[in-house]
Design goal:
Radius of gyration: 29 Å
Number of helices: 10
Strand content: 5-15%
CATH architecture of the largest domain: 3-Layer(aba) Sandwich
CATH superfamily of the largest domain: SPOUT methyltransferase, trefoil knot domain
CATH class of the largest domain: Alpha Beta
Bound molecules: S-adenosyl-L-homocysteine
Helix content: 40-55%
Distance between the termini: 60 Å
CATH topology of the largest domain: Alpha/beta knot
Structural class: alpha/beta
Strand order of the largest sheet: 3-2-1-6-4-7-5
Largest sheet: 7 strands, parallel
Number of strands: 7
Length: 249
């Protein structure tokens, strides 16, 4: 599918990422969610091929990634900057949850604005000074005792919300074989077969025919069996009797 048009305005900014494996994970998450622009601020030394090895894809994202010395420079062109942190701190900020953030990001993109999603370093996250540069701060809800997510997983969650807000998800494909709903006559034969096979195994010795068969009909109606499925169950019931006959039982 490639990057949906609206999402081209979104940049993922990693502030001082320390581990190439995480950068690879971020690239993969971006590819999954239709994002393609990556900015790195003072990253650890990395080999693009190693990152591609982790990401399994996305060499284009790595090769076109821009590297900056200062976060200020990386976000200079953005109109809307969303920082992320594991813990809403005491400081008053414009906190957002991922869902609202995704919607806001999309609205900004559609208004022709550039959006930066900023993520902090693995060991200590974004500093207060870095969060001061952000007009929104997104906190992904999590267990307070284990609030901090892996960097790439945090990127994935936010990128997913942006992807959904963009309406980029395709409907599930129709199953390859769609059989028509079974005709009533076929249905009738199915129940005859089931009833006959239940008789053959003496099921009704302990159960009344009518309520049992009513339940069977009700379940079949609820399952909305198609022609193929009806034929399959009919064959199963038929084979029960056939087996008993063959073995003289
Ligand atoms: N020990 C650091 C954890 C940093 S995790 C701390 O407590 O801040 C690396 C980055 O992943 C964070 O800077 C943030 O960008 C992102 N992240 C991790 N957990 C997050 C959460 N629950 N909500 C939003 N972002 C999160």
């Amino acid at each position: 599918m490639g990057t949906p048009q609206d999402l081209r305005r979104v940049v993922v900014v990693l502030d001082e990422p320390q581990d190439p494996v995480n950068i690879g994970g971020v690239v993969r998450a971006m590819k999954n969610m239709g994002l393609s622009r990556l900015y790195l601020v003072g990253p650890v030394d990395f080999d693009p091929w190693r990152i591609e090895g982790v990401a399994h894809t996305g060499l284009d994202v790595i090769e076109s990634a821009r590297v900056f010395d200062r976060l200020e420079d990386a976000i200079a062109d953005a109109h809307l900057v969303l920082g992320t942190t594991a813990r809403g701190r005491r400081v008053r900020r414009n906190y957002r949850r991922p869902r609202e953030a995704g919607i806001e990001v999309l609205a900004a993109c559609r208004a022709g604005q550039e959006v930066a999603l900023v993520f902090g370093r693995e060991d200590r996250g974004l500093s207060n000074a870095a969060l001061d540069l952000c007009s929104r701060v997104v906190v992904i809800p999590s267990d307070p005792e284990h609030a901090s997510l892996n960097l790439a997983q945090a990127v994935l969650i936010l990128a997913y919300e942006v992807f959904l807000a963009a309406g980029s998800e395709l409907p599930f494909k129709e199953p390859r074989h769609t059989a028509a709903r079974a005709r009533r006559e076929e249905f009738g034969i199915l129940f005859q077969e089931i009833e006959a096979s239940l008789h053959a195994v003496d099921f009704f010795k302990a159960h009344k025919v009518e309520p049992i068969m009513r339940t069977v009909r009700e379940v079949a109606a609820r399952a909305d069996l198609d022609e193929r499925e009806t034929a399959l169950f009919k064959a199963m019931a038929y084979e029960v009797r056939n087996f008993l006959d063959r073995h003289g039982l």
